[in-house]
Amino acid sequence: MPLLIVILGILLLFILIARFKLNAFIAFIIVSLAVGIAEGMELETVVQSIQDGIGNTLGFLVMILGLGAMLGKLVADSGAAQQITTRLVAKFGIKNIQWALVLTGFIVGIPMFYSVGFVILIPLIFTIAASTKLPLLYVGLPMIAALSVTHGYLPPHPAPTAIAATFNADIGKTLLYGIIIAIPAIIVAGPLFSRTIKNIEATPLKEFVNPRILEESEMPGITTSIFTALLPIILIMLSTLADLMLPADNPIMPFIGFIGNPAVAMLISVLVAIYTLGLARGKKMPEIMGSVSSGISGITMILLIIAGAGALKEVLIDSGVSQYIAEILKDSALSPLILAWMVATVIRVCVGSATVAGLTTAGIVLPLVAATGTSAELMVLAIGSGSLMLSHVNDSGFWLFKEYFNLSVNDTLRTWTVMETTVGVMGLIGVLILSLFI
């Protein structure tokens, strides 16, 4: 019965979001209440559980995601993203242009939310395709694949960061393992796959045929652009490597641990970006703060969705359902990593949102980590991979890709959906291989 209630709750979530187009945060709260009450929890206890779930989830994430949005906006508005793209394309040349775009998508995708990175980079993709006379999908898909992978696998993006917090996974290790898995996933889903779809014709939106491209004098230098975009990753990875290589009693460890804390790393990165991408280039503080404020406004709903997922997770834990499910699943012949990936895939197909799929799955399979001793970091990546699977017509990313590339629904399924599924399958394969050594 507890398992049936959870299945019906997820079905209700799907109906509310996909059929009735209800806001995902509202849908999560309704489903949390329904599941809690159906599981026999007292009304006051259900409400308290929802409040605790929201508070516990956002308490860790607000600072990281808020500062991450600010950094992404500063990178975009300053022209740093364009500088990275143009310089790498010039360096690699037309023959290796796909690899330049993959690297661009990866670098720019780390500090930026997927939709922001997509909208910022798409005019550059159109311009490069027009100037090189190469097919649009051949040029664009590698960069989009890199953006998608960073969105699904790597902190400080919302879903992987929130899932890591749920499992108490080490952010630095999650990032390190995620990068190792991301590289082959991007190569297969981007440059290799795009070479098989040259017969599918895509055309840019007419509004972007002649996009405004910043002059060299309007953009920061390439070294500054790359350093500022990657600074949070540098700081977090520095702390992780120090943990692995230095003794715990080394006097420098507390300082490295402090600057490598994800929240502190993001704060330092934003302060550096304010100077390197703003003040050092003659911009006034009100203009810089305008970019920062507009960046924050774009993640408000993401934060609420994550909060709603946190509420459902807490209800599942407090009602005992998560433990009940874990008891059923722990004796399964399947690896917990495969089970988590499969649950995320099913929810992704039903609900559409990768973030919703990832966070809902985390709440369901949470007890499996303790019960089976599975690596928390690999569970984060398994769920992240499953949450990218089989994107179709109920996913906003599907329509974003379709409309910007002027594709039919059928051609979008043949390109975008196959690319996302390739990323998800490659992620699972990478996780399973890493699990042999970790």
UniProtKB/TrEMBL annotation:
Alphabetical keyword list: Cell membrane, Membrane, Transmembrane, Transmembrane helix, Transport
Localisation per UniProt entry: Cell membrane
Top-level taxonomic group: Bacteria
Membrane topology type: Multi-pass membrane protein
Secretion signal span: none
Transmembrane segments: 58-76, 136-154, 174-193, 222-246, 252-280, 292-312, 338-366, 413-437
The keyword Cell membrane is annotated on this UniProt entry: yes
Family per record: Belongs to the GntP permease family.
PANTHER family given in the database record: GNT FAMILY GLUCONATE TRANSPORTER, HIGH-AFFINITY GLUCONATE TRANSPORTER
Protein name: Gluconate:H+ symporter
Species for this entry: Arenibacter antarcticus
